[in-house]
Specification:
Length: about 170
C-alpha cells in the first residue's frame, strides 16, 4: 500500500532541495555579476582580472573549470538583460550574512586590484555596491586597506606612497 503521508513529505523535501539548488545557483550568478561589473567598470577587462574572478569563483563555490566558465557565460547573459545591480545585491542580501557580504567585498577589491590599479569608475562602483549590500563605509575601507596591504608589490599599489605607507587621503575615503 502507498503511504501518501511519506510520499507527500518526500515530494516537499525534493522540491525544497531543488529550490535550494536554484537559490544557490542564483547567488553564484549574483556574486559573479558583481565581480564582472567591477572588472568592466574601467572598460578594460584585463586577463589578470578574469583570472582573478575565475580563481575566486572556483575556490569559493568549489566549481570545476567547465562549471566556472559556464557560470561566467550565464552571468554575462544575465548582466545584458539587467538594468542595474540591485537585483543581484538584493539576492545576496536575502541569502548572505553580514560577514559573508564583507567577504564578497574583499574579493571584489581583489578583482579591482588584480591589474594593480584603481580606476575612478571602479572606485565609484565598489562604493555603490557596498551601499547596495548594506555595508558600512568603514567595512568598505577596512577591506580595501586589507587587500591593498596584501598585494605582492606594495610600492606599486595605487593607495600607497613610495615608502609603502597608506596615504592620508585614502584613509579618509
Amino acid at each position: 500500500m502507498i503511504n501518501f503521508k511519506n510520499l507527500f513529505k518526500q515530494t516537499i523535501t525534493n522540491s525544497e532541495s531543488i529550490k535550494e539548488e536554484d537559490i544557490s545557483k542564483k547567488v553564484q550568478v549574483a556574486t559573479c555579476a558583481i565581480f564582472l561589473e567591477l572588472a568592466n567598470a574601467d572598460n578594460e577587462f584585463a586577463d589578470v582580472e578574469k583570472e582573478s574572478i575565475i580563481s575566486i569563483l572556483k575556490n569559493n563555490f568549489k566549481l570545476s573549470d567547465k562549471d566556472t566558465n559556464k557560470l561566467i557565460t550565464e552571468t554575462e547573459k544575465e548582466l545584458k538583460q539587467s538594468i542595474d545591480l540591485w537585483q543581484f545585491t538584493n539576492l545576496i542580501n536575502q541569502n548572505f550574512s553580514e560577514d559573508e557580504k564583507v567577504k564578497i567585498l574583499e574579493y571584489a577589491w581583489k578583482v579591482i586590484y588584480a591589474d594593480k590599479k584603481l580606476d575612478q569608475y571602479e572606485d565609484y562602483l565598489i562604493h555603490k555596491i557596498a551601499n547596495l549590500l548594506r555595508l558600512k563605509h568603514e567595512q568598505l575601507i577596512t577591506t580595501k586597506l586589507s587587500v591593498s596591504a596584501s598585494l605582492p608589490d606594495k610600492s606599486g599599489s595605487p593607495d600607497r606612497r613610495p615608502d609603502g605607507k597608506v596615504s592620508e587621503n585614502d584613509k579618509r575615503n
